[in-house]
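Side project, low priority. Logging it here so it doesn't get lost.
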Amino acid sequence: MPYIPITEKEYEIMLKEIGVKDFNDLLTPIPEQALLLNKDIKLPGPYNEFEVYQKLKSLSKKNKTIDEYTSFLGAGAYSHIIPQIVNFVISRSEFATAYTPYQAEVSQGTLTAIYEYQSFISRLFDMDVSNASMYDVASALAESVHLARDVKKKEKVLIASTLHPFFKKTIYTYAYGLNVPIIEVEEKDGIVNIDSLNKLLKEDVAGFIVSHPNFYGNLEDMERISEIIHNSNTFLIMAADPISMAILKTPGEYGADIAVGEGQSLGIPISFGGPYLGIFTAKKEYIRKMPGRIIGRTKDIDGNEGFVMTLQTREQHIKRERATSNICSNQNLCALAATVFMSAVGPDGLKHAAYLSMEKAHKLSEKITNIKGFSLKYERPFFKEFVLQTPIPAAELVENMLSYNIFAGVPLNRFSKNRTNELLVACTERITDDDIEHYVDSLRKIR
């Protein structure tokens, strides 16, 4: 029986309403070679439950994790130490199996957790308000484009070319349907070219997006950028590493109008590309233009304190023409993980993680550059990540380092063909002095 049981008559009526004679007519946009129609795909015979489990277990062993390798991977996803209490709390059934809180008022526990998350993030980023979270930092940046244009009533948005390539692609995708002009500000020596920024800042520019640290790990000249942007009546939209907030100036201190970040570093393990946690904060005056949802604290008629869904801007909930976003969810379990993480480590723990990450990265970079043929691509201040110039193709180096149980970094030729001999290397507090020595010794053997 089909998944949705319908009669032949109902089937014919549906096709007629759609305007096709046969179901296969609906598949015409798909290339023929991609279709499995009438093809023998040679699936194995049926397995029982135990056999399926064994098969999947065998396949899973092909995956290699940071528990088996020492990881120097970065480029937006970082392996920080996660206290055991994080997984314990988010594994509780009332959290792990809870449905997206469309009507979250029925669950005071869920609302309380989101409220605490918003409070922590606002303090960490030194911004007035935080929403309940977005899908990831890329979607948060894309949504910031629409907020800036909506408030400023201007067309264009500038983005730094030092932004993560994947973030830029997401922004372009969001902007495509509305024909939003997105213009990249060129880079110079690994940071934003200030002269280029000045030239591109016109009256029709709504905002400028920059990340600090940037994709290469370098620290941007945020003081000058902030001054230039605000003198031009333009939104400053800043993407920041939440761990770095413990020791670097915050977006709030730079006067950012919108500040976003990737919350994966806050208690969420690296897991083959997700899930992630999009942090979205802004100045208070833009709260009604923010995407997603915001939880607030209030009192009922009897004076009892409680939590409610204060703002929700999706088109499902308010008039379509007034909707600021079609984001209909938030990364609730991931936001809870971040909340428990920040509660467990506290301000001092965050500072310790940030200082150790920075210290390890600089120590590693110094030792590597003492090896003949290796050098830093950019001689600039960086936080926990840097670009290494390699004597052999970076992708080849990474492949060779696997034999020493090391994830050596991210080859930048993944993002640009002319970066064959460039490797993005990151360190966190997980990296020990022995790990650094092992990395350097292994490089000497394969160079």
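Brief comment: The CA atoms of residues 33 and 39 lie 10 Å apart.
Revisit when time allows.
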